[in-house]
Amino acid sequence: MATEGSERFDQVDWSDISRSGRFDLSINSIGMLLTTLPVALLAVYDWQFTGRRTATFEFIGLDRTLETVDFFFIFTLLLAFWYLVLPLYQHPRMTRYYWKEFKRNRPAVVSMIWLGIVFVGGIVGPLVMSAPQQELLIAYQPPVFTSVVESTPATCVGDVMNGRCYGTWQHPLGTTNAGKDVLTMIVYGMTISMQIAFITTTIVATIGITFGTLSAYSGGWVDEIMMRFVDIILSFPTFLMFLLILYIYGGGLGMFIVVFSLFAWGGTARYVRSKSLSISEEEFIKASRISGASTYQVIRGHVVPNVASSIITQLTLLIPGFLLFEAQLAFLGVGDSSVPSWGQLISAGRSDLSYAPWIVLAPGIVLFLTILAFNFLGDALLDALNPEAEAETE
């Protein structure tokens, strides 16, 4: 290995690195393995020994069921912690520099706070709030500080004055035409949005980075074939494929995530390839090759870390598209109506706009703010992590 006091390429013993093994485990990887193992065992237990109508945690007295999407969501959260959050803690100087650059963008700071609220609400909310239940007798309850004409057979939960039903803090954002609490559905929708964001990002990043780097460093006819395949992926009618799979296997959040992720990595792969080709001409890459580093070591140790900042910003800007597309499909009635997403809530209130506009407005505003926050966050991350890209655009 290289001496502790030097980072010069000509002093790196690449043969020693090769002998030590390509898969040396860091503390991050060890922590990832140790935390993933219980989740994997729980998933096997749930799939093999628990019936569909039996709660996952019934053996400890909790009435809580985890679906396949939930297990993948937990896995992506662990990935984000061990390979994103913990490295920031391990490198405080770098973190302080990035934060100094990031906080110059005030809208991005506000956006990060909002996304933090959505993230915490999506994680903690379902644990402390019961799932939204249908109660027809309390349908069309207005939000607090508003009122509607009292209707029958629905019962007004709040005060009734001059024939009008006033909102109550029992249902601060009102209820739907089925009597479901709008606030509860929005909180559960936060979980759906975070699942879409984390899982799709993981799938797109994994496939895109792998495909892009392999294409760049394979070269020749291999690179040509791989890029033509990317062209096919980018031009493929994903919506029609989703409708076909929906017709054959039925809808569901997991199906939406898998289908659209598998057809959304093309842009990331092309971007990673172009960045890899440009970085391959840098002097430190040539120095590492002269020092004896293999292609694998160059890609893992230099190429991927140097394109990571650009990839992070691109993926951050890709998430709003997934959220908006899910909302559009739900509004059109395509997909699983049992999934409590913001799009499903908007769809449920579209026929009651004239009488109960809050059913559409509340989730619509939350969805708008979340998409806007991701866009602001992506722009700020681009400026903080990759200032050269900002200089190129000016």
From TrEMBL:
Coiled-coil residues are none
Report membrane topology: Multi-pass membrane protein
Presence of keyword Transit peptide: no
Matching entries from Gene3D superfamilies are given as:
MetI-like
Keywords for the protein's UniProt record, in alphabetical order: Cell membrane, Membrane, Transmembrane, Transmembrane helix, Transport
Calcium: present as a keyword of the record? no
Q: What subcellular compartments does it reside in?
A: Cell membrane
Question: What GO cellular-component annotations does this UniProt entry give?
Answer: plasma membrane
Name the Pfam families for this protein: BPD_transp_1 (PF00528), OppC_N (PF12911)
Stored InterPro entries: BP-dependent_transpt_permease (IPR050366), MetI-like (IPR000515), MetI-like_sf (IPR035906), OppC_N (IPR025966)
Superkingdom of the source species: Archaea
Q: Which GO terms describe its biological process?
A: transmembrane transport
* Domain ABC transmembrane type-1, first and last residues per copy: 190-378
What stretches pass through the bilayer?
25-45, 71-89, 109-129, 192-217, 315-335, 355-377
Query: Which family is annotated?
Result: Belongs to the binding-protein-dependent transport system permease family.
- Which PANTHER family does this entry report, sorted A to Z? D,D-DIPEPTIDE TRANSPORT SYSTEM PERMEASE PROTEIN DDPC-RELATED (PTHR43386:SF1), OLIGOPEPTIDE TRANSPORT SYSTEM PERMEASE PROTEIN APPC (PTHR43386)
Q: What is this protein called?
A: Binding-protein-dependent transporters inner membrane component
Where does this protein come from, organism-wise? Halorubrum californiense DSM 19288
